[in-house]
Design a protein that fits this description.
Layout: H1 2-6, H2 11-21, H3 23-32, E1 44-49, H4 63-72, E2 75-80, H5 95-102, E3 109-111, H6 125-137, E4 143-146, H7 155-166, E5 171-174, H8 187-195, E6 201-204, H9 206-210, H10 234-241, E7 245-248, H11 251-259, H12 262-271, E8 276-277, H13 291-298, H14 302-317
Parallel strand pairs: 1-2, 2-3, 4-5, 5-6, 6-7, 7-8
Helix pairs in contact: 2-3, 6-7
The protein binds zinc ion.
The site of zinc ion has 5 residues, from loops.
Length: 320
């Protein structure tokens, strides 16, 4: 495996070659070297960021602050995710807020929308469809970060997922033992996928990423397991079964899933190159982002790096 993998061009070879032919890919090299990128067209699309408000001692991240950080990191476009459920964050980030603050920057900031399935006045399928349509008309390109305190296959969730599938909104969901809960093997998510073959689902957070390993426990699904991965993980089983299932590489959980067993992680990225999406979960000025060091460590072939950093996101988000 190691030898056959090494026959592919290395990331450095890819970036060196790319640097001679494309201004945009020079930016990838700059990002990986943690140097400011001085070109307008950059290769990364970040599928997971948040614009936040001032709350307590935590500094806010404005649209301008996010854009300035994206320039330094050579990220051309970023998905900006609301957080509407009480279990999500320390303050709610409404869909209307995300639509408003991204509105002057829609060439680079891609808003998603979100609905909590427990809102009593939105019970029923059609009410959810109608509100989602309003958000789509206002610019929303996907649904999430879906991070609510119900099981992943909760009836209200199932209505939302069906509506998103009908409206062609990709769903980015957070899964752990408090939000969109499931059990080892992901039987709840399996039901979601079985019932929504037209939908696109993007898995994120501890419960999802612990399921990269065949021996994932319930405790792992709210944790950052460090032991080596065993084969037969639910993610692999479900990705084999469902072509509409993707993984969001953002946050500590995404980085840990690949780093905990770097040999497995590298092989997983090569095998699932069409199903993985670069993301950071950047939401606070000065936040440490492990994904850049991880990409350097993985030393991926050029085509794999291009897929996970950009072209998969273009396909899922319907970008040109
Ligand atoms: Zn997030």
């Amino acid at each position: 495996m190691e030898n056959s993998v090494r026959k592919n061009p290395s990331r450095r070879e890819f970036l060196d070659r790319a640097g001679r032919t494309s201004l945009g890919l020079v930016a990838a090299s700059a990002a990986l070297a943690q140097e400011p990128a001085a070109v307008p067209q950059a290769p990364f699309i970040d599928v997971h960021t948040h614009i936040t408000q001032k709350w307590g001692k935590v500094p806010e991240l404005t649209a301008e602050g996010l854009l300035a950080w994206m320039d330094i990191r050579a990220i051309s476009q970023a998905v900006v995710l609301p957080l509407v459920s009480p279990e999500s964050w320390d303050h709610p980030l409404s869909t209307d807020f995300v639509l408003r603050v991204t509105e002057p920057h829609r060439d680079r900031l891609i808003p998603f929308c979100s609905i909590d399935p427990r809102v009593p006045n939105l019970s029923g399928y059609q009410a959810k469809v109608d509100l989602l349509k309003r958000y789509i008309d206002a610019g929303a390109r996907g649904f999430g970060e879906h991070k609510c305190g119900v099981p992943i296959d909760d009836p209200g969730n199932m209505e939302l997922f069906k509506a998103c599938a009908e409206l062609r909104l990709p769903v980015l969901f957070h899964m752990d033992n408090e939000r969109n809960m499931d059990t080892p093997g992901l039987p709840g998510l399996t039901r979601v996928l079985q019932q929504n073959p037209e939908g696109v689902f993007i898995g994120h957070a501890n419960g999802w990423w612990a399921s990269i390993s065949g021996d994932a426990t319930q405790k792992d699904m709210h944790d950052y397991p460090r032991r080596p991965v065993t084969s037969g993980g639910a993610i692999d089983v479900l990705m084999d079964r469902f072509p509409n299932l993707y993984g969001d590489l953002s946050a500590g959980s995404g980085a840990n899933a690949l780093k905990r067993d770097i040999a497995f992680g590298r092989e997983f990225v090569l095998r699932r190159a069409d199903r993985l999406l670069f993301g950071t979960d950047y939401l606070s000025p000065g936040q440490d982002i492990p994904q850049f060091d991880l990409l350097r460590e993985l030393d991926l072939p050029a085509d794999t790096l291009e897929k996970i950093s950009r072209s998969n996101a273009c396909r899922v988000l319907g970008l040109a």
